[in-house]
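$ ./design --mode recover --in tokens.txt
reading tokens...
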């Protein structure tokens, strides 16, 4: 089982504009191995954290052909970042500001960004407000429009109230909930996903995010059309763009992926076979596809 918590990175902390302490993992190749290549910044999904990117970050940081510095960020209220007393601050605009603050804190003037799910929505806003930061973008199973059915599934799963008594039960719950859409995963993969999603509290797994983030999904009125970010997506036309879509994703439909490709003529579409929302980026042929995309970037 991969160790998600030790080795290969430096723990970093920085402050948001409103004074919240936020966390990052900084994977830096030794010496001058990056040879001027721009860093990769990884933004996780709604309730996910830096551990999602640990296997991929090691692969990219240690890539003999073109190693890159990789920085993975915990959004406020997730992972090792502080929880916000003002629960209304768990929104895309505030979290976009947090990413911009991270770039300033770490001296990043331009980078390649990978955004999983909510992280990809944030990248839409960065493209519209700070396009100078974006050298290239990889969107992991997210686009400017999402399927209400998929978001409702996430709402119901996160608010199910099931709390595993031990680590085996946590892995069993994940496999029971997501197994039908993640047929590419083996037993060890479910254990790794468990380590990424939960933190150890007195020997028991506890979901590693502020429950208020999941609770906020209950207020969505699914009888009304969900807002979209097509206007912001147009700003991504300035950047090389790769879209990874889970073969069984309920959140990003094939139709939306096709429309994204129509509007961004240079978009590279990669199917994550046997995976749902959101694909694990270190499995199958996804790392090779990401390496190939990065090879064309500064």
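writing sequence...
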């Amino acid at each position: 089982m991969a160790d998600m918590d030790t080795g290969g990175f430096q723990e970093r902390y920085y402050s948001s504009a409103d004074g919240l302490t936020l966390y990052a993992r900084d994977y830096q190749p030794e010496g001058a191995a990056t040879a001027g290549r721009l860093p990769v910044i990884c933004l996780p999904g709604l309730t996910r954290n830096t551990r999602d990117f640990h296997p991929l970050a090691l692969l990219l940081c240690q890539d003999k052909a073109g190693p890159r510095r990789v920085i993975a960020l915990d959004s406020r209220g997730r992972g090792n970042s502080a929880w916000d007393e003002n629960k209304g601050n768990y929104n895309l605009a505030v979290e976009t500001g947090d990413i911009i603050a991270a770039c300033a804190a770490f001296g990043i003037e331009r980078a390649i960004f990978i955004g999983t799910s909510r992280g990809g929505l944030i990248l839409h806003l960065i493209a519209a407000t700070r396009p100078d930061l974006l050298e290239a973008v990889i969107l992991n199973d997210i686009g400017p429009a999402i399927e209400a059915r998929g978001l409702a599934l996430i709402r119901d799963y996160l608010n199910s109230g099931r709390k595993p008594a031990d680590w085996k039960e946590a892995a069993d719950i994940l496999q029971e909930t997501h197994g039908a859409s993640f047929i590419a995963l083996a037993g060890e993969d479910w254990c790794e996903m468990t380590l990424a999603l939960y933190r150890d509290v007195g020997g028991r797994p506890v979901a590693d995010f502020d429950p208020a983030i999941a609770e906020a999904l209950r207020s969505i009125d699914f009888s009304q059309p969900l807002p979209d970010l097509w206007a912001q997506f147009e700003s991504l036309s300035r950047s090389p763009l790769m879209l990874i879509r889970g073969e069984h994703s309920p959140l990003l439909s094939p139709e939306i992926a096709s429309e994204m490709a129509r509007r961004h003529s240079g978009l590279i579409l990669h199917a994550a076979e046997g995976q749902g929302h959101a694909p694990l980026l270190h499995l199958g042929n996804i790392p090779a596809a990401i390496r190939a995309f990065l090879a064309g970037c500064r």
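exit 0
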